[in-house]
Amino acid sequence: MTRFSIMTALDPKAPIGEVGVLADAAEALGFHKLWLWDSWASKDGYIGLALAAQHTERLLLGTGVAPTPLRHSALLVNAIATVDDISGGRAVLGIGSGGQATCGRLGVPKARIAEFRAEIELIRRLLAGEEVVGGQPYRVESVTRPIPLYTAVWGPRMQALSGELADGVIIMGPERAEVFSQKMQRIRSAAAGAERDPDDVRCVLQVSCAYADDPGPLIEKYKSLAIHHMQRLGYEGEYPAEFRHLFDEVREAVRLIAMPEGESPGAGRVPDEFVRHSLLVGTEAECVARLADILALRPDEVVFSVGYAKVADLEKAASLFSKAASA
After folding, report:
1. For a tag site, which of 64, 212, 262, 310 has the least CB within 10 Å?
2. CATH number corresponding to 3-213+283-325
3. What pLDDT is attached to residue 104?
4. Cα 25 from Cα 68, distance rounded (Å)
């Protein structure tokens, strides 16, 4: 059975205590997990998860996601182990190699594949309570159980690595069933190649969730996220040929790395059709049909990614999931 979750950032200008209201609503609406950004561009995600834990009883709580180049693995593990303690064993650690927004704007390079492999292997050992050797031997004493480790991935090498080593994989990219299907198969094949049961690797499909009778204003709003996606290098082949010329044009015109949430220069260069194709944005009927196709792939989880989510956004996501699941 596919579960549904929410991934969001904590508005840096809003009181962090509002996350308690959000978490309470998420649990009441049947969400499986609350994933919070670990980013300098939002309020602190670990504090947010700790507050959310005190307002909930069943909701799983994860980082969505922690960029490994910005924090030592021992600190990541200690932080999520503390959330696990506060929540009574409901924490999940989501990590990534560092996107152009989270790391690039700070001048920090993202982790290369070999570096990210080493980080995953180190984190798994620390989550198992093992002693490891850095400058000298150490272990993270706050760990009491092997907290599930998820990775966020886009390209094929990250998919293969995650199928080999991760407990779960948050799959990003054009939010279309045919693209997700290829990525899920690549992850499961890598798991089998590592002599793992492919069903033990949880596949989480990340989608937007924005619909209205007149989706025009939402399409304009989500052009910043579209630019954020287009600034990633090497993934043009996942899009139809008629859109591929846009990538170089947008990268040339928009030098400042776009954030996933908020306005971005160059939005006028992004056609409405590109947003409709690559993101789950449109009328309710369009989004229900698209999501139903995605659910037909039988992923373990669909996570709705909404920047600075409010309770109303959770209600819309839950409603969309319910309608798509019964379509």
Report:
1. 262
2. 3.20.20.30
3. 86
4. 30
Residue 261: the pLDDT is: 75
**Any idea which residue has 């409603």 for tokens?**
319
**CB 90, CB 33: distance < 8 Å:** no
Joined tokens for residue 156? 């094929």
Share of the chain above pLDDT 90, in %: 90
Handedness of CA 71, 73, 77, 78 (dihedral sign): negative
Q: Is residue 257 over pLDDT 80? A: no
Predicted confidence at residue 158, as pLDDT, reads 98
Q: Which residues pair with 67 in a beta bridge?
A: 96
pLDDT for residue 208 is more than 80: yes
The span from the CA of 24 to the CA of 29, in Å, is 9
Read off the tokens for 315.
């209600």
Contacts of 11 (CB under 8 A, 6+ apart): 18, 42, 43, 308
